[in-house]
Automatic annotation (TrEMBL):
This is DUF3615 domain-containing protein. Residues 50-145 form the DUF3615 domain. The lineage of its organism: Eukaryota, Viridiplantae, Streptophyta, Embryophyta, Tracheophyta. It comes from the Eukaryota.
C-alpha cells in the first residue's frame, strides 16, 4: 500500500508530523465537513435502528412480508437527566406490502458501554407524549408515546449541561485552500516556518 505521507528527502521530523496530522495514509484529508459528519452519524444511527428493528421483528415473530424494514430517519435528540444520557429517535419503517409505520425508540448506555433500548415501539402520528428533553432543545416535531411511563428520559424540566450542542459551525470543505490554511495553522502552533 502506498502511503501518502512517506518520508521524502528534506522532510524534517516535524514535516512528517504535520503530514500525518493532515492526511490519512491513502491521501484523504483527515478533517471532514459538517455534512460528512452528519451523513456518517445518520448512517451509524440508521444501522443501530435497523438492528433494533431486526430484534423487534424477531421478538414479535414478524418474518417475510410482515417484517419491518428501516425506511427513514426522522428525528434525534440526546437528553441528560440525573447524570444519565438518553437518546430519543423517530423513524419510519415499511413492510414488503408497502405499509409504512412510525416508530419511537429510547436508547441509553448500559454497563460496559453497550446500548440498551428502554423503549422501542410503533406509535401513531397523532401521539404526542410530553418530553421536556426534546422540547427544551427545540425538537418539537419528535413524537413520543402517549403513555409517559413507556420511556424513561425527558420527564425532568432540565437543559443539557453547558448549553448543549451550541458550537461554532465547521466551515471545512476539504479544498486545497482549507488544507493549506490548516497546514499553516499547524506550522504556527509547532513553531515551524
Amino acid at each position: 500500500i502506498k502511503r501518502w505521507w512517506n518520508e521524502q528527502a528534506g522532510d524534517s521530523g516535524m514535516d512528517m508530523v504535520i503530514k500525518k496530522a493532515l492526511y490519512w495514509p491513502d491521501g484523504r484529508t483527515r478533517k471532514c465537513s459538517d455534512k460528512e459528519v452528519v451523513d456518517h452519524t445518520r448512517e451509524q444511527m440508521s444501522l443501530m435502528l435497523q438492528a433494533l428493528l431486526d430484534k423487534y421483528n424477531e421478538d414479535h415473530n414478524l418474518v417475510g412480508d410482515l417484517a419491518y424494514e428501516f425506511k427513514d430517519f426522522l428525528h434525534y435528540r440526546s437528553i441528560c437527566e440525573d447524570y444519565k444520557w438518553y437518546k430519543h429517535f423517530n423513524f419510519t419503517t415499511k413492510t414488503k406490502d408497502g405499509t409504512e409505520d412510525l416508530f419511537f425508540a429510547e436508547v441509553t448506555e448500559g454497563t460496559c458501554d453497550e446500548l440498551v433500548a428502554n423503549c422501542f415501539c410503533k406509535i401513531e402520528s397523532n401521539e404526542n407524549g410530553h418530553c421536556y428533553g426534546c422540547i427544551n432543545h427545540g425538537i418539537t416535531d419528535m413524537k413520543h408515546p402517549d403513555k409517559a411511563d413507556a420511556y424513561s428520559g425527558g420527564h425532568l424540566n432540565v437543559y443539557l449541561p453547558f448549553g448543549g450542542c451550541r458550537s461554532r459551525p465547521n466551515t471545512w470543505t476539504g479544498s486545497k485552500e482549507d488544507v493549506t490554511a490548516e497546514e499553516a495553522r499547524l506550522r504556527y502552533i509547532y513553531g515551524i516556518q
